[in-house]
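Minutes, project check-in
Item: structure for the 345-residue chain
Input as provided by the requester:
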Amino acid sequence: MNKKEAKILIVDDIEDNRYTLERSLKRDGFENISLAECGKEALDLANKSKFDLILLDLMMPDISGLDVLKQLKGNPVQRNIPVIMVTASDEVDTAAECIKNGADDFVTKPFNRTLLRARVDASLDKKGMRDREEVYLDKVETDKKKSQQILKTVMPNSVVSELQTTGFVRPRRYDEVSILICDLVGFTSFCEKNQPELVIETLQNIIKLFENTFLEFKLEKIKTVGDAIVAVSGLSSFDTQSVKNCVDCGYKLKEIASNLETPWDLHIGIHYGSLVAGTVGDKTVQYDILGQNVNIAFNICDISEPNQILISNDAYMTVRNEVNVKSVGMKRLKSGQETEILECI
């Protein structure tokens, strides 16, 4: 620790002692020194300023040095300030009591300048090490919070909690999950015609608005594949309204896209069924959903016309009394399955 920057507080009710300690410290290169003539003044100064070291007289008329020490060490903000007790030669037993209560060291009167310098330097070195450790721990905590936030942007909250608690996510099969696939019409050609900065900025702004909409309708975003977004409802917890959530969310996504400064058309496909979910990868971990029903949802999105919200018959049957639809007929999907597809109107 830099001697010119170290803040030291000398506490002693005898002026000659304060003068002797201050003079000795200044000879050793310490410049930032404060003085207190009683325990109350010392506590007041400690509450107002951050000191790197306190030289504390043991015997004082108002509050004893031991009681001042106990108050300092009982305060979470001040407990890491090194305290060197200043004692008379016959007060060694009481000095030992101070050490038990958190004092870092003690010096006896009359002062030995060499010993005082050594103990002050040692205490400040320890303080410097503790300060560096605190900075490191703060950085670790900040990085941990950033990591948690990043995880929450790419994984459902329930998955993040399991990953942080156990270190891995157990693969599971989920039943009765609603899957929504949404992509931007013509975004590929937009990418070819515009600068990369504009492409990413445009997609980022749209995705941000869509993510807020997912939260509003209780959907969890699983991933973004180019300009396509995969979201689900009823995965982390069972929801009897999962399909309705997806349909209502689809309407809101269309409204948002059409009201942008540069309006966009959307392809939206919704399906319902079971799927497998878990983390995939080792170096780059990604939470993903897998299975035939996920493929069907993508296939339905692929066959939709601009601004159509298409829904499979399986999904429609769970909300047939709540959603208005019209049939677009039997469709053979890329997966080879033939099924009736309906449009939400």
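Outcome recorded: The chain has a mean pLDDT of 90.
No further action items on this chain.
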